[in-house]
Amino acid sequence: MAFYRSAEPVRTYYVYNAALSFLFALSFTLSAVYYVRDAGLNPLQMVLVGTVLELSCFLFEIPTGIVADLYSRRLSLVIGFVLIGAGFLLQALVPAFLAILAAQVLWGIGFTFTSGADQAWITDEIGTERAAGVFVRAQQFELGGTLVGTVAAGVLGLISLPLPMILSGAGMVLLGLVLHVVMREQNFHRTPREERETFRQMADTFRSGLHAARRRPVVRTLVIISLVAGLSSEAFDRLWSVKLLTFTFPTVFGTSDPAVWFTIFALAGTLLSLGTSLTLTRFVPGLLKSSHPTGVLATLALLQVVGVTTFALVGNLWFALAALWLRTVADTVRMPIESAWLNRHVESRSRATVISIVSQANAIGQVAGGPPLGALGRTSLRAALLTSGLILAPITALYLRLGTRRTADTESVPS
């Protein structure tokens, strides 16, 4: 077949990100409503669902990152999406706490196979210099996919809350199979069979990733930032929806169904994020591709703190939404800038592993911070959300401190 593994890498990466974001939006837009209404989860159980997910990520992030570095980025992605799809299908078909926990294990392991592998793949194929612009552009494709997926979730959710998750799970499996067929991998060199079936080779790759994290201030600081962000994010990501469900929603289109309103909320947040990303790309492209973007990252981190703490304190639905969207926009703009920055400071042979180490630090933070804040949330939802925001405060200082350094680590690392 002429098209077999012949797709152009950048176009493949854009379509892949759009499709992935569509499927995630299809599953996640109404998942919180599903957890509360259909499965009957309380605030602590909501957080424990996320904790089990992050614990799975913590335990499997490094081994799966090593697979992507030693065997194949493409193979790692295919395995990951099949497992993610299976997890989505399980939690949609069995609305019970234990089944939902098992689903988190499945799709959490699947996510670790994809984490870092896609960024490492495209960086290998096109080089580190082109990757910065591609990451920013891909973010916009992601937001476009999210918009379509959010609308689809809202429409399907009016029929049945689990339906969008079922279709998302099936779509994830299909995405993995399509990537197996079309995704080319020309600049990745697989470790010879006689070498890759040894633990020593895996240990060497892991040590290379740890060495980069210790030796390079940018990588080391991003690991710490990822840990702090994880301490805060698990509780907030699970409890913001619980707070919104305490408000009385106005009637729109003849209904006040939370499925409709959560769709509207998600659409508004995505449109704001997309508009901000496009505006920054058009008017300050050099800032987004800066070799040392500490100033803009510190500003975005501060905006996240303001958004989370304001959301925790206000008692008005519209003020709460404004704060939530501020946090969402700041985080959306931050991600591609930070990803490109990290990739410039890591060698190709350990790139997926280093990215996995950063992700693992976030998982450690979520596992450590989620349950205590979830338990606090059973007593005071406001206190749990406020604490989540205050934990984020040191990140701004960490970015600014890194910006004062002038070391060899500011040099780009060749791929």
From TrEMBL:
Superkingdom: Bacteria
InterPro entries: MFS, MFS_DHA3_Transporter, MFS_dom, MFS_trans_sf
Keywords: Membrane, Transmembrane, Transmembrane helix
Pfam families: MFS_1 (PF07690)
Cited CDD domains: MFS
Subcellular localization(s) per the UniProt record: Cell membrane
PANTHER family assigned: PERMEASE, MAJOR FACILITATOR SUPERFAMILY-RELATED, TRANSPORT PROTEIN-RELATED
UniProt-recorded name of the protein: Tetracycline efflux MFS transporter TetA(P)
Organism: Kribbella hippodromi
Gene: tetA(P)
